[in-house]
Amino acid sequence: MHAAVVCWGIGEAWKVEEIQVEPPKASEVRVKMLYASLCHTDILISKGHPIPLFPRVLGHEGVGVVESIGEEGGDIKEGDMVIPTFVSECQECENCVSGKTNMCLKYPLSFTGLMPDGTSRMSAKGQKLHHVFSCSTWSEYMVVNVNYLVKLPPTMITSGSFPLPHASFLSCGFSTGFGAPWKEAKLEKGSTVAVIGLGAVGLGVCIYLAYMFFLLGQLVLLASYLINIL
Ligand SMILES: [Zn+2]
Ligand SMILES: [Zn+2]
């Protein structure tokens, strides 16, 4: 039995529960979670958006170490440090090779809250538990399809240049912000930029700007608004 944060229904208080996490099947990996962080989407999901699937183990940002692997685990090994991702890349489908989007057709964003085979590896009090997209990081252990994991380079960890608690934000917030000006807005040198909100997403935008264009001095508006959409 392992502890996890469970939401049992729309708008219900989150509860720490003892849950069962089954061993991984083929193409799956069981991960011992080390760090996790909170994204606003976790709050939305506990309120039933976009699809009310309950009971549900929350959390979709995190860092963990691979504890066990199914027989088709690919190049993931026991002891690897990994972060979950929600859209994978087969690198072969029409979208993956387009260079315009990474919305992979083979490994898309999952809205079922279940493993790709339609089942769950988590249960509590006799009930099947749902994921947030492809994973549930607010759990001592989680099972993820191997295609929805990114392995962290060991040298970055051993060198100390990549603190694992900070790596948790790579799962969603930071990457969302970093990718927005790069892949969506397609900013060019000299672009005028307004960053609204300086959470993990907004800071990801700023770091992209600083890293790619050294533009921080040219930002004409850098404002943080608390956007309350609850
Ligand atoms: Zn693909
Ligand atoms: Zn998120």
Number of strand elements: 12
Average pLDDT across residues? 88
The SSE string, one letter per element, is EEEHEEEEEEEHHHEHE
Helical content stands at 10-25%
Side by side, the strands of the main sheet go 4-1-2-7-8
How many helix segments? 5
Small ligands present:
zinc ion
Main beta-sheet annotation: 5 strands, antiparallel
> Can you tell me the residue ranges where pLDDT is under 50 for at least 5 consecutive residues?
219-230
Global Rg: 18 Å
N- and C-termini, Cα separation: 33 Å
Describe the structure.
The protein is α+β, with helices and mostly antiparallel strands. The chain contains 5 helices and 12 strands. It is globular and about 60 Å long. The model is unreliable at about 220-230 (pLDDT under 50). One zinc ion binds near residues 92, 96 and 105.
Topology record:
Blueprint: E1 2-7, E2 15-21, E3 28-37, H1 40-46, E4 56-57, E5 61-69, E6 81-84, E7 122-124, E8 127-128, E9 141-145, E10 149-151, H2 154-158, H3 164-167, H4 173-184, E11 194-196, H5 200-213, E12 221-223
Parallel strand pairs: 11-12
Antiparallel strand pairs: 1-2, 1-4, 2-7, 3-5, 3-9, 5-6, 6-10, 7-8
Helix pairs in contact: 4-5
The structure holds zinc ion (ZN) (2 copies).
Residues 89-90, 92-93, 95-96, 104-106 line the site of one zinc ion (ZN).
Task: Name the features.
18% helix, globular, 12 strands, binds zinc ion, five-stranded antiparallel β-sheet
Short description:
This protein is of the alpha+beta class. Helix content is 18%, strand content 25%.
